[in-house]
Amino acid sequence: EVQLLESGGGLIQPGGSLRLSCVASGFTFSNYALSWVRQAPGKGLEWVSDITGSGGSAYYANSVKGRFTVSRDNSKNTLYLQLNSLRDEDTAIYYCARDGYGSESYPFDHWGQGTLVTVSS
Amino acid sequence: DIVMTQSPDSLAVSLGERATINCKSSQSVFYSSRSKNYLAWYQQKPGQPPKLLIYWASTRESGVPDRFSGSGSGTDFTLTISSLQAEDVAVYYCQQYYTTPYTFGQGTKLEIK
């Protein structure tokens, strides 16, 4: 059974930093690209970032480019998102999701339960 | 960026009746060399992560009831629930995975009339 489990969320002041983790199980981790998707309270879904299975390529939404960094450790089956220079508008539930297989783009077929990041002074 | 626009924003349908949600992309998400539309539909219930329902515009994910169907190509897509059940109350999102940034529609809230 595919499982994704996020952690690392919490309350952080504007300008602060946080690192989110997503531990995966139930599939060959390095074969799949993974994405981070966020959802502000009461709002819709916003794709944040994607990283290829090897970790060789990463992609970002314009809203987080230069502030967030995605990475992965395939030996630990873990995906990370480093959040720097946090703003109020980054407050959201952050989900990790499995997407592409190999070089092909695929929909997000498995999602974690999410971790809440609250940016507030 | 590809902008995804759903209509309507909310919808109330009687139990057993048909529900139809539309999604329009600002540019085609059809990859001609692969003959596929890179368009997915998700269902999200309160307090839960989204769940994949439909991908490649019309392929039902394993375990999804056959009352859910997807259609369309290029820039115009539709999610249809043929006979609404109480458990279908949720917010529905379309998404293009044709190119980054992957983008979602704003969501359509489906309720029981």
In terms of DSSP E residues, the strand content of chain A is over 45%
Given helix and strand content, the structural type of chain B is mainly beta
Span between N and C termini of chain B? 36 Å
Largest contact between chains: A-B, 22 and 25 residues
Distance between the termini of chain A: 40 Å
Q: What overall geometry of chain A do the principal axes of the alpha carbons give? A: globular
Instruction: Let me know the number of strands of chain A.
Output: 11
From the alpha carbons, calculate the radius of gyration of chain A and give it in angstroms.
Answer: 13 Å
Q: Secondary-structure element order of chain A, as H and E?
A: EEEEEEEEEEE
List segments of chain A where confidence is low: pLDDT < 50 over at least 5 consecutive residues: none
Based on Cα principal axes, name the global outline of chain B.
globular
What kind of oligomer do you see?
heterodimer
Please write out the topology:
The complex is a heterodimer of chains A (121) and B (113).
Chain A: E1 3-7, E2 10-12, E3 18-25, E4 32-39, E5 45-51, E6 58-60, E7 68-73, E8 78-83, E9 92-101, E10 110-111, E11 115-119
Chain B: E1 4-7, E2 10-13, E3 19-25, E4 30-31, E5 36-37, E6 39-44, E7 51-55, E8 59-60, E9 68-73, E10 76-81, E11 90-96, E12 103-104, E13 108-112
Parallel strand pairs in B: 2-13
Antiparallel strand pairs in B: 1-3, 3-10, 4-5, 6-7, 6-11, 7-8, 9-10, 11-12, 11-13
Account of the 3D structure:
- The complex is a heterodimer of chains A (121) and B (113).
- Chain A is mainly beta.
- Chain A is 0% helix and 52% strand.
- Chain A has strands at 3-7, 10-12, 18-25, 32-39, 45-51, 58-60, 68-73, 78-83, 92-101, 110-111, 115-119.
- In chain A, strands 2, 4, 5, 6, 9, 10 and 11 form a seven-stranded mixed beta sheet that branches. Chain A has a four-stranded antiparallel beta sheet with strand order 1-3-8-7, with no helix packed on it.
- In chain A, β4 and β5 (45-51) form a beta hairpin.
- Chain B is mainly β and 113 residues long.
- Chain B contains no helices and 13 strands.
- Chain B has strands at residues 4-7, 10-13, 19-25, 30-31, 36-37, 39-44, 51-55, 59-60, 68-73, 76-81, 90-96, 103-104, 108-112.
- In chain B, a hairpin with a 2-residue loop joins β9 and β10 (76-81).
- Chain B is globular.
- The termini of chain B are far apart.
- The relative contact order of chain B is 0.34.
